[in-house]
Structure prediction request, 172 residues.
Amino acid sequence: MITYYDDRSVQVTSTAVRVDGRTYPLAELGMVWHRRGSRSWRVLAGRGAIGAALAGPLVAAVLGVGLALWLHRSAVVTIAIVGASVLVGLGVGPLADILFEHLDRSYARGSRELEMWARWRGRPVRLLRTDDALRFGQIYRAVQRAMEPAQPTRRQNSIGSSGSNPRPRSRP
Prediction:
């Protein structure tokens, strides 16, 4: 038995798919497909908040430099305002790394609910529902790989080797 995917709630092997305690033997599974739900506005708003948090200190630093030049104060005051603005801009560096990591994880998780369906014993059944796009992709690909050996092998001719192009045959 080959294990293609294994976590706390999902296991995909060469013999079956197990999801939350339910077992679906591969021999009983037919077509597998997926559905995408609507976008989650909560996730999109979170991404926008991270973007604002990244841009806020930088905008403040640029405004500080502009303010220092616009005020036409003494050189010492101008240098102090520009220095403070630059420090604010540089201070976002360590914070930016954390925020970019959260933003990257947000895109890996996705902004939609995803479902995997299969035809099992002649009827459609939902195998999995998750909002984690990365995990969903890993599980979906594992199910595809597990089902590949069960598919009938097609004889493939390479173009040019026999002098003719293979054509699909219609059934009577």
